[in-house]
């Protein structure tokens, strides 16, 4: 495969309540890259991203209603190639997704995971350069 030409990666987008606006801004900034891939998100995050980007998002349930578990199941089945989980490590509400499930599943299945804006930008730029070609072996 030609470097930089990866298409069709499955990207999961999750954000705690206090990080949803940041996720929207991230997706606006990287809309061009994200538009080349299949996007999955918990319900509210997905709706908010769609509102500002017009990107097509496969929306799961809201995180507190099981959306995080739905995405974790996709990770376990090796159906997700990259996870961006903008989390609030200090002020997480009880109803918000459990980070530990996603972290464990990404570690178990060797899925790249970004948990803050800096690592999300590094991964999305790496994806655009073709640095995630190795994920094709796992599919």
3D architecture notes:
The chain is an alpha/beta fold and 139 residues long. It has a domain at 15-84 and 97-111: Rossmann fold, CATH 3.40.50.1380. 42% of the residues lie in helices and 14% in strands. It contains six helices and five strands. It has a five-stranded parallel beta sheet with strand order 3-2-1-4-5, sandwiched between helices. Helix 5 links the parallel strand 4 (82-86) and strand 5 (113-114). The protein is globular. The two termini are 14 Å apart.
Provide a count of the helices.
6
- The proportion of residues in beta strands is 5-15%
Major β-sheet profile: 5 strands, parallel
- Give the averaged pLDDT, no decimals: 87
Provide the fold topology:
Layout: E1 10-15, H1 20-29, H2 31-34, E2 38-41, H3 43-53, E3 57-59, H4 67-76, E4 82-86, H5 99-109, E5 113-114, H6 117-129
Helix pairs in contact: 1-3, 4-5
Comma- or semicolon-separated keywords:
139 residues, alpha/beta, Rossmann fold, 5-stranded parallel sheet, 5 strands, globular, disordered N terminus
Quick description:
With 139 residues, the protein is of the alpha/beta class. It has 6 helices and 5 strands. β2, α3 and β3 form a beta-alpha-beta unit.
């Amino acid at each position: 495969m030609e470097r930089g030409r990866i298409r069709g990666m499955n990207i999961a987008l999750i954000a705690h309540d206090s990080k949803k606006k940041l996720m929207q801004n991230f997706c606006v900034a990287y809309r061009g890259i994200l538009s080349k891939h299949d996007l999955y998100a918990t319900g509210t995050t997905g709706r908010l991203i769609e509102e500002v980007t017009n990107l097509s998002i496969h929306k799961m349930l809201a995180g507190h209603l099981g959306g995080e578990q739905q995405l974790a199941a996709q990770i376990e089945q090796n159906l997700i190639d990259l996870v961006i989980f903008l989390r609030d490590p200090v002020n997480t509400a009880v109803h918000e997704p459990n980070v530990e499930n996603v972290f464990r599943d990404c570690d178990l299945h060797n899925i790249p995971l970004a948990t803050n804006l800096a690592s999300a930008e590094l991964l999305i730029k790496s994806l655009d350069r073709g640095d995630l070609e190795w994920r094709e072996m796992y599919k």
